[in-house]
Design a protein that fits this description.
This protein is mainly alpha-helical. It is 74% helix and 1% strand. The chain has 14 helices and two strands; from the N terminus they run ααββαααααααααααα. It has helices at 2-27, 29-56, 76-82, 85-117, 123-135, 138-148, 155-162, 179-203, 208-216, 221-232, 234-249, 253-258, 270-280, 284-315; strands at residues 59-60, 71-72. It has a two-stranded antiparallel sheet. α11 packs antiparallel against α14 (284-315). It is flat, with a radius of gyration of 26 Å.
Length: 319
């Protein structure tokens, strides 16, 4: 009898909550009408493409045929992806690209932020110079670095030959062994200014009173940094690293323009491989399955990003 009464009470509470929700929506119906156009646009340009991509990932689409000729194959596309040796090589390239670019760009940008946080003559000029790689278009930067790395006309090879360090200009982006590190260098060159700006903004919020108190207590510069500055920057550091990781995992312009994934798939990462499968080989089903897996990974990173932001909001003192 008690269980029946509890179930009835729970049902009444659920109906009451549903009624309150509908009443709240009706009272604020004008507000919902204002945002309705934006919701419709989001459904058209975001929700429907996601649904269509997920649906297409369960079909086989032979090259050269129309999408109407697709045939349902269930999870075969996902099975083919996970059993392909090319996929695992591309995945390793993606991990190396993402981790290498993120970690080194963060360390370099953080070090420059610490150096430029101190007051000295010419600091503003140096800040402006270091921001230049970030404001340059990724397409323009890719073509510039492609010429810098050129095996015959590249400035790096010419300088190395003139200095007598090598007999002939090295093939940075034409060699399987050096192409991925060469691309990571370009990506780091473009991304470290973003880290520098984020960390300089974080350094502005470190309480000077704590630093002075630690100095009075006899703490060295390293101890003040490790026990005062660095813990205070944990929130902005987490957000910066997650933003870099998401951007690098989904990076397309630099690898595709500079190498197109070559030579021999040595510089292919997930996003470029998906592009080649879809628009090069017209394997829309396999490319869609790839995209679904990439979407899941990015959503996971996005979840941690939102958690980091929420933790920062909870830790912020109320005004």
């Amino acid at each position: 009898m008690t269980m029946v009464t509890g179930a009835a009470d729970s049902g009444r509470q659920t109906r009451a909550m549903r009624t309150d929700l509908l009443r709240e929506i009706w009272i604020n119906r004008a507000d919902y009408l204002y945002v309705l156009p934006a919701i419709v646009v989001m459904l058209i340009v975001i929700a429907y493409p996601i649904y269509y991509t997920i649906d297409l990932s369960f079909y086989k689409t032979p090259p050269g045929l129309q999408l109407k000729d697709k045939s349902f194959v269930g999870l075969d596309n996902y099975t083919a992806i996970l059993s392909s040796s090319v996929v695992w090589r591309v995945s390793i390239n993606t991990v190396i690209w993402t981790l290498g670019s993120t970690v080194i760009a963060f360390v370099l940008g953080f070090a420059l932020a610490l150096a430029l946080h101190r007051d000295f003559f010419g600091r503003a000029i140096l800040r402006a110079i270091f921001i230049i790689p970030w404001v340059i278009s990724a397409v323009a930067a890719s073509y510039i670095w492609k010429w810098i790395y050129h095996s015959d006309f590249g400035i790096i090879g010419v300088v190395l030959v003139q200095l007598g360090l090598v007999d002939r200009p090295p093939n940075f982006i034409d060699s399987v062994n050096t192409v991925l590190p060469a691309l990571i260098v370009v990506n780091i060159w473009r991304e470290f200014p973003f880290v520098m700006i984020m960390m300089m903004a974080g350094l502005q919020t470190v309480p000077e009173q704590l630093l002075r108190a630690a100095q009075v207590d006899g703490a060295s510069a390293w101890q003040r940094f490790w026990h005062v500055t660095f813990p205070h920057l944990s929130g902005v550091s987490t957000v910066t690293i997650l933003l870099l990781a998401v951007a690098n995992f989904n990076s397309f312009v630099i690898p595709w323009i500079m190498t197109g994934g070559g030579p021999a798939n040595a510089s292919h990462i997930w996003i470029t491989h998906i592009y080649e499968l879809a628009f090069g080989r017209q394997l829309w089903g396999v490319a869609s399955a790839y995209s679904v897996l990439l979407f899941i990974i990015l959503m996971t990173l996005g979840y941690f990003y939102v958690r980091a932001l929420s933790r920062g909001e909870r830790g912020r003192p109320a005004a």
